[in-house]
Amino acid sequence: MTSEPQYPQALPEVVRVLLDDSSCPELDIIEQGGTARAIAWPGVGSHMRSMHRISLTSGGTSRPLRHPMESVYYVIQGEATANDLDDGIGHELVARSMILIDPGTTYTLSGGAHGAEIVGGPCPPDPGLYTHLSQEA
Q1: 135 has a pLDDT exceeding 50
Q2: Its pTM surpasses 0.90
Q3: Residue-range definition of the domain harbouring residue 82
């Protein structure tokens, strides 16, 4: 006699529309010349993926960042440099390019001559990015 396979109980399906606007909390990751906002993060129920909007002016830069998981960033417009601080190499990014940053790599993002609009973040979210925020949406 065979029994039916046992599967974990499915979670209820939920679809949420997240806006990239002033209601998104600001992240404390910009050293100079820009802003960063959390769009998808644990505070809105996103526990497997983070998505941040990073706006950098010409010469703007993030603070040094390092996550225990990989990070992915996509350049919407402008130019940027992803600086690998561990090996001293800068990776030039142009509009419509994407970069994958390995876990444990220390890096910064810097705006190019005309600045940059970037989306992305670590996956899963890095709790250290949100310690200054309430974990409630």
Answers
A1: no
A2: no
A3: 30-130
